[in-house]
User: Which sequence fits this backbone?
């Protein structure tokens, strides 16, 4: 079996030159590791960001009213708010899940009994708040239409408020004071965010989306009399319907709101409570998706470039080591020919040697690349970064091809010489 | 042209010309004809640059002549393909180099095994044959040493073991004692002598008159031609008799004298140059 001879020879030579073998494999392995880890982690991070972002915003439509008056309380009058709510809940009931004001207090204090805590965010919500903001009820009840209508002083709290302020006790029916205004707790939302390892408990307080409360937006006047509610979030069932909802809302609001007559504007603030003196803006994030996709493609191209450069540099390393030993190898080939090795056997031996060298190096690189990807992703971004298989394939086969080409090219040249010419090489 | 004499080695009008037709043309071999019979022991002698190494390389099928025919065992090796030549080198010829040419990464045993591997001998048989060969040169104890761990004489003996591991018909030795001191060189010569006594044909190149004397026949080369052959004793030495006198194609004066002696005379009659 000529082939097994060549395999045997290849192993014999590789084992005989352990230093060279190790260095060549190391060069290949490092290149492959870098490419795999770099691309995989960045891709995973991108994907995670996109997922989170889409999950939170993909079926959101936002309406923003802005006033031309520079005065506090420049808010759409209750007629517009009521009409907008009715339009969403009646005319667009098939397309939308709910609407809630996008208004909140940040870092407000809340107390119960003799205890108090800083709540990250207190929302002024509608009865559809939990649908839109994606909270699920854990116990008790949600805000109701009647709460909104009457401006009831009720509150639904996030799980972290329960855990902290009530030490895991059942808070239903208790009275919590928000800025010294009493609110009755009617419900608790389920925990929706796990604490990542890299946050301390205290740091996580101001990061957790479970450190929240929601009160009826009609009760905002008790907490913050100057609160303006001029932004609404609407959740649509299907992200693809967002575009349609935006158009419908534009039409609807266009008939509702008198556009500003700049010619008669006296520059002094005066609020016409019957016709909101301002304008509006309706948008959805689908308008950003194209940009996001383009940005992602750009990043992918950039990554591919980096990967190509890394592979190329790794390839040059392989090439160097392979070429540096050419002289030595040329003599060796001369000796082998002189004692009766045919050209094909020699070339096969060198092919196998190069394949083993770069293949084993590449395999080491793949293993190291996977390990680094998993650990790095976990430590740096707290995400399970899956090693990217296409780039793994490209990196591995690229290094293999480089190794084989640069390993076998000198061998073919040397094996085609007359033995005496190969032996003459100094 | 066929094999005329039935001798082991037949060279007819071998030319080796470098840069033919150019100003720098060099005739390393200028019409050499030589016949060697089975069991002979020949020393090729000549000054450095006389063409004796080129002749040796052609005899060993390590190089191909520019013109001429070379019959080995009745087969014209000039017409063979690469893989056939490899087989000839492997099975019929054992080559011993002045610089040993052992593979430095392999042990003595592995070096000796190499030609057997190319011959397709397997496993324990191959190992046994290689160990036997090492035993014959007295290096059985050192089979696991690498060339770097051995003296020059030991390395040359490993090279001899490698050459005779396949039991070749012919052993070609290019200055086998050239890199050795006289005592170890003597040892090497004794081994070759014993091999010849056992029937192996031996052709060696040497500077050393003492070594040349060991050989039964001396062939002196000068400027690419055979100028003296002490072994014209065979009855069937026809071609040798015909060509040794320089009756080949008209010799062309080389513009570049590669002879170390710097003599201009290219005439074969100007033989007997100082050894």
Assistant:
């Amino acid at each position: 079996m000529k082939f097994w001879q060549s395999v045997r020879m290849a192993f014999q030579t590789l084992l005989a030159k352990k230093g060279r073998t190790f260095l060549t494999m190391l060069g290949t392995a490092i290149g492959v590791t870098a490419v795999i880890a770099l691309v995989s982690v960045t891709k995973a991070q991108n994907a995670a960001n996109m997922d989170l972002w889409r999950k939170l915003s993909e079926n959101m439509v936002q309406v923003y009213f802005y006033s031309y008056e520079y005065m506090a309380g420049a808010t759409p009058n209750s007629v517009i708010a009521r009409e907008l709510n009715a339009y969403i809940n009646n005319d667009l009931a098939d397309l939308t899940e709910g609407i809630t004001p996008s208004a909140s207090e940040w870092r407000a204090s809340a107390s119960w009994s003799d205890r108090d805590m800083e709540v990250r965010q207190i929302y002024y919500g509608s009865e559809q708040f939990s649908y839109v903001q994606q909270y699920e009820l854990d116990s008790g009840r949600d805000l109701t239409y009647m709460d909104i209508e009457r401006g009831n002083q009720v509150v639904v709290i996030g799980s972290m408020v329960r855990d902290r302020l009530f030490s895991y006790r059942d808070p239903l029916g208790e009275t919590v004071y928000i800025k010294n205004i009493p609110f009755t707790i009617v419900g608790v939302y389920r925990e929706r965010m796990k604490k990542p390892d890299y946050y301390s408990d205290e740091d996580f307080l101001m990061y957790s989306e479970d450190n929240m409360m929601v009160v009826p937006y009609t009760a905002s006047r008790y907490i913050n009399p100057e609160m303006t509610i001029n932004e609404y979030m609407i959740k649509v069932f299907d992200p693809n319907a967002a575009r349609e909802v935006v158009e419908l809302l534009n039409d609807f609001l266009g008939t509702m709101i008198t556009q500003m007559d700049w010619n008669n504007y006296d520059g002094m603030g005066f609020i016409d409570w019957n016709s909101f003196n301002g304008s509006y803006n309706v948008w959805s994030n689908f308008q950003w998706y194209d940009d996001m996709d383009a940005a992602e493609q750009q990043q992918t191209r950039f990554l591919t470039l980096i990967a190509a450069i890394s592979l190329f540099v790794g390839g040059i390393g392989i090439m160097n080591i392979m070429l540096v030993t050419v002289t030595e190898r040329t003599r060796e080939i001369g000796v082998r020919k002189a004692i009766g090795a045919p050209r094909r056997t020699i070339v096969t031996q060198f092919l196998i040697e190069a394949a083993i060298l770069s293949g084993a190096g590449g395999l080491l690189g793949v293993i190291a690349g996977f390990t680094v990807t998993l650990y790095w992703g976990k430590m740096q971004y707290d995400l399970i970064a899956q090693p990217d298989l296409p780039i793994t394939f490209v990196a591995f086969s690229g290094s293999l091809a480089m190794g084989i080409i640069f390993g076998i090219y000198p061998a073919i040249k040397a094996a085609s010489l007359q033995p005496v010419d190969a032996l003459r090489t100094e | 042209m066929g094999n005329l004499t039935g001798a082991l080695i037949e060279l007819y009008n071998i030319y080796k010309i470098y840069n033919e037709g150019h100003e720098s043309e060099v005739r390393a071999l200028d019409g050499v004809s030589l016949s060697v019979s089975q069991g002979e022991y020949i020393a090729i002698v000549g000054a450095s640059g006389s063409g004796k190494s080129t002749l040796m390389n052609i005899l060993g099928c390590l190089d191909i002549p520019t013109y001429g025919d070379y019959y080995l065992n009745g087969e014209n090796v000039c017409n063979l393909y690469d893989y056939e030549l490899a087989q000839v080198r492997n099975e019929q010829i054992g080559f011993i180099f002045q610089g040993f040419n052992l593979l430095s990464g392999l042990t003595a045993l592995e070096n000796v095994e190499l030609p057997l591997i190319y011959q397709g001998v397997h496993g324990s048989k191959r190992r046994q044959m290689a160990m036997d060969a090492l035993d014959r040169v007295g290096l059985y104890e050192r089979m696991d040493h690498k060339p770097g761990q051995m003296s020059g004489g030991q390395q040359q003996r490993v090279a001899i073991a490698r050459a005779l591991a396949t039991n070749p018909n012919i052993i070609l030795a290019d200055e086998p004692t050239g890199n050795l001191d006289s005592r170890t060189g003597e040892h090497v010569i004794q081994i070759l002598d014993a091999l010849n006594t056992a029937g192996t044909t031996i052709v060696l190149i040497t500077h050393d008159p003492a070594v040349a004397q060991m050989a039964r026949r001396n062939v002196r080369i000068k400027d690419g031609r055979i100028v003296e052959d002490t072994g014209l004793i065979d009855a069937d030495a026809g071609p040798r008799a015909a060509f040794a006198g320089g009756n080949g194609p008209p010799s062309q004066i080389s513009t570049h004298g590669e002879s170390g002696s710097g003599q201009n005379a290219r005439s074969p009659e100007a033989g007997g140059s100082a050894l």
